[in-house]
Amino acid sequence: MSLRNELDPDRSIWHFIALEALRLRKLSGLTGQALANQIGCHRSYVSRVENASIHLSVRYAERLDEIWKPVIPFARLVRWAEASDDGDWFTGLTWHEARATRHRMWEALLVPGLFQTEDYARAALSSGMVDDVERAVKTRLARQEAVFGQPDPPHLTVILSWAVLAQPVGSTNVMREQINHLLTAADLPNVNMRVLERASGAHVGLDGSFRIMTVEDRDVAFADAPERGRLVTDPGDVQRYAVRYDRISDTAEGIGSTRAALERALETYR
């Protein structure tokens, strides 16, 4: 069964967008390549949007609106979909994550998924976050490979709350392995890792973890939430996340101090 046969427009606005984009393309007599040429994207992008394996961006939605002038503009549908919570956030996250050339991450409670060891991920996911733990672990490791396995890996700037290091996840050995992994990752030329110490007090990052990803010439944000997150592509909303990230960054320790913080945390798990 093809991906298109599995789309349900009654369940997901993104599925409706995918099927409507396919319908209007066929109605206009355009091939996928011809449409890609008109809106300035790759042929595979058109196919993936129509399969709902990625989410249509506002940028390309506006170009479709210029071509077809639909009764309900695609740009409006995309904004509705982004504001809704239909459970289809993970598709957009993994697509942007694997293609981003720059990642800016703020993590308030857990080691970011891209930096988790297998045992740490398993311990965290076993706490009741998912139904199929082993499947989720494999997915997480595959996401890491998609980012770090690239010939030219992206630049990652990571700010960790002190609580990430203080919160035990799994056994003492699991935590030691995880912190050692963070120390190794922090030495990578494409990784800038910093810690926001407890003494910093109240700050704008206390209301939750988020990240900003740069894909091609635009930024998208992703905000964590229990069970599911939210992908944000509206430029104004993304800019607010960027300002929040800068405010957190202004408070975080420098790179040298961060290594000392990681080493101190490692000593607590002996």
Automatic annotation (TrEMBL):
Domain HTH cro/C1-type per the UniProt entry, residue ranges: 19-64
Recorded superkingdom: Bacteria
Pfam short name (any one): DUF5753
Protein name (database record): Helix-turn-helix transcriptional regulator
Native source organism of the sequence: Actinomadura monticuli
Source organism phylogeny: Bacteria, Bacillati, Actinomycetota, Actinomycetes, Streptosporangiales
